[in-house]
Amino acid sequence: MAGGISNSTSGNSYMDNAKMGKEHVKFLILLALAYAFDQMDLFTFSFVAPALTKHWGVSMEWIGVVNSVTFVGMLFGCWFGGWASDKYGRKKTFLFSVIIFSTFSILNGLSPNKEIFMVARTMTGFGVLSMVVVAMVYIVEILPAASRGKWQAISLATGLLSIPLLGQIAQILIPASPDGWRHVFYIGGSGFIILYLGTKWLKESPRWLITQGRYEEAEKVIQHFVPDVKVDMSVEIAAHKDTNAEKAQETSGLAMIKEVFGKKYLKKTTVLTNMVIFITVGYFIFFGWMPTLLNEYGFTMEDALWMSALVSFGSPIGNYIAAFFTDKGGRKVPIVVYSVAVGLLTIVFGTIKAPLIIVFVGFAVRVLMDGVFVLMWSYLAEAYPTHIRNSATGFIYSLGRIMTSAAMLLVPIIFKQFGYGVLFGVIGAMFLIVAVVTGIWGERTAGKSLEEIAVEAAEEAAPAKA
């Protein structure tokens, strides 16, 4: 039924209509921890970069190259995470990704030279985004349809508490000694705790199991999440086993791309691609470069670090606030409102010179940018059917990373040729474009079952009957 949750007794409906229980909470705790270590690994370099400029004598151009290769690693991580999780399952791919980004975070701290450091950053980016792509889809497949956006935001917000914590630690450790920056990377390596907890707490996505024809396993997992309801999938098994087995075979990269850019999903894919590219590029230029840009703008390294650290407190707050709006307005309306606010405030940010006002406006931008980022995650992760959900999500998300990789090389050029204000004006314009495109062509998805969203897309693409 359009606009609501199906009353069918299919395996997926059990998950859509479930009440939040103990196992859901454990799942969210694990995801929040994973997001925490992911974000620490991701933003460590933004705090470390000014120190490397001082202690290794590196240039802004080299920092741009490191940022760029990190996003190249993320690009391949998106592809790998999407492909592997559709082929081998969400759980295995998630845990493997945790091993990768935790290992290479430690190797970043141990790097004896710039070349090894760059390789380690690339592989950290690979592991981080492989894990994130899986997590984005994992959470919408496990949680109830009516509140999955809210819980996605709360989980991410809890994990993002690690960013201001990292900022405070970096502010203490980095100026303390020439090797202080190395210890910041070691913190990210403690993400191995996720591997231990994940082997005990994580269950495979029942939606993925169903597409693989593994109904008995899916039934057990569903029962695990809804212990008070008798789960019986016998009718669904008899009616749909052959159909789902066929879909499970249609997950090659070429088949996925043809489907995503086919008539059924073309409008949706265009809106999502625009959104992912501009939000991702704008977000990571702003916060990935903020300490360095402030330093180059005339502030000391210590001042640039404390201002960036204070601004970073807006990250978890932004996601907690977004949790109250993400399931409203079909997901579309909050994305448009947030994007307009971010665009205007970012343009203003580029005109400010007073440190306290920079912190105040930067904090507001951080709150709103992180809010729209998590809204985008939910919107993207619920857009496509189960048999291509992770591959399609990973592919589109990777487009944002490859464009960010290129943009990172352009930042020093734009800054030196046109100045600080123009750079932030460009970022603001990106978010205003997102608001216009999403407002005109975006679809409403919040509160609907994942299967209902897929059916509506098929019906919209079907030719009208005479």
From TrEMBL:
<dbReference type="InterPro" id="IPR005829">
    <property type="entry name" value="Sugar_transporter_CS"/>
</dbReference>
<feature type="transmembrane region" description="Helical">
    <location>
        <begin position="62"/>
        <end position="81"/>
    </location>
</feature>
<dbReference type="GO" id="GO:0005886">
    <property type="term" value="C:plasma membrane"/>
</dbReference>
<feature type="transmembrane region" description="Helical">
    <location>
        <begin position="27"/>
        <end position="50"/>
    </location>
</feature>
<feature type="transmembrane region" description="Helical">
    <location>
        <begin position="271"/>
        <end position="292"/>
    </location>
</feature>
<dbReference type="GO" id="GO:0022857">
    <property type="term" value="F:transmembrane transporter activity"/>
</dbReference>
<keyword id="KW-1133">Transmembrane helix</keyword>
<dbReference type="InterPro" id="IPR020846">
    <property type="entry name" value="MFS_dom"/>
</dbReference>
<feature type="transmembrane region" description="Helical">
    <location>
        <begin position="392"/>
        <end position="415"/>
    </location>
</feature>
<feature type="transmembrane region" description="Helical">
    <location>
        <begin position="335"/>
        <end position="352"/>
    </location>
</feature>
<feature type="transmembrane region" description="Helical">
    <location>
        <begin position="151"/>
        <end position="174"/>
    </location>
</feature>
<keyword id="KW-0813">Transport</keyword>
<feature type="domain" description="Major facilitator superfamily (MFS) profile">
    <location>
        <begin position="27"/>
        <end position="446"/>
    </location>
</feature>
<keyword id="KW-0812">Transmembrane</keyword>
<feature type="transmembrane region" description="Helical">
    <location>
        <begin position="180"/>
        <end position="198"/>
    </location>
</feature>
<feature type="transmembrane region" description="Helical">
    <location>
        <begin position="421"/>
        <end position="441"/>
    </location>
</feature>
<keyword id="KW-0472">Membrane</keyword>
<feature type="transmembrane region" description="Helical">
    <location>
        <begin position="358"/>
        <end position="380"/>
    </location>
</feature>
<dbReference type="Pfam" id="PF00083">
    <property type="entry name" value="Sugar_tr"/>
</dbReference>
<protein>
    <submittedName>
        <fullName>Major facilitator superfamily MFS_1</fullName>
    </submittedName>
</protein>
<feature type="transmembrane region" description="Helical">
    <location>
        <begin position="93"/>
        <end position="110"/>
    </location>
</feature>
<feature type="transmembrane region" description="Helical">
    <location>
        <begin position="116"/>
        <end position="139"/>
    </location>
</feature>
<dbReference type="InterPro" id="IPR005828">
    <property type="entry name" value="MFS_sugar_transport-like"/>
</dbReference>
<feature type="transmembrane region" description="Helical">
    <location>
        <begin position="304"/>
        <end position="323"/>
    </location>
</feature>
<dbReference type="InterPro" id="IPR036259">
    <property type="entry name" value="MFS_trans_sf"/>
</dbReference>
